[in-house]
Design brief:
single chain; 3 domains; about 70% helix
């Protein structure tokens, strides 16, 4: 199993496992969550052993996951045991299976809708052309920001053009001089060198 996993495992699987088991708490929660879903700590342990044998996980990561798996296998029994508790407290009522399942389902739906909505909101921003930001403007609220970006880009382009023109003028003036001229920056890197200095080198 380990050799087969090692051959078939991609870099994405390795990075996913590294994220899910990178810290002690992350590994513990991963083991708890997986075992709570599949309701078998033995299956989780077998998978983890396979990952360790194939080099996808370290022994330290595996220990954290297995610790979480041992706790996760008791989740169903814990939830069912709450149905026998009688109390008027709101949090006890919410944790009972009759109330917990709808709350969990509603939370999942809200999170899914929020994730979907955030993707739709962010997608036009990711597709925005920063060279020409006002070309495909989706949100009017960003109009002032886009105008500032355009103004800054025009200003930077103008300053670059001025610097390039001055550099060309300087090189044209010093190109045919008999004296060698070398311009250095603060770090001693050559900024400009004329033909006479180049011939002397």
């Amino acid at each position: 199993m380990g050799q087969a996993l090692e051959k078939r495992a991609s870099g994405r699987l390795r990075s996913l496992l590294a994220k899910m088991t990178g810290t002690k708490m992350a590994g513990f929660l991963t083991g708890l969550g997986v075992t709570a879903i599949i309701q078998s700590s033995s299956a989780t342990t077998v998978m983890v052993v396979g990952f360790v044998n194939s080099g996808l996980m370290t022994l330290t990561q595996a220990i954290n996951v297995i610790m979480g798996a041992n706790v996760g296998t008791t989740v169903t029994a814990w939830i069912l045991s709450l149905s026998g508790i009688s109390s008027d407290a709101v949090w006890v009522r919410l944790l009972k299976p009759s109330s917990f399942t709808p709350v969990l389902a509603l939370t999942g739906i809200v999170l899914y809708l929020a994730w979907n909505l955030s993707k739709r909101i962010v997608k036009p921003l990711n597709e925005m052309n920063l060279d020409q930001p006002d070309e495909k403007l989706v949100y009017e609220e960003l109009a002032s920001l886009v105008k500032r970006l355009n103004a800054q880009q025009r200003e930077i382009a103008a300053q670059r053009a001025i610097l390039q023109r001055r550099r060309d003028e300087f090189e044209a003036a010093t190109r045919h001089m008999r004296e060698g001229i070398i311009l250095l920056d603060e770090k001693g890197c050559i900024l400009s060198i004329n033909d006479s200095a180049r011939a002397g080198c």
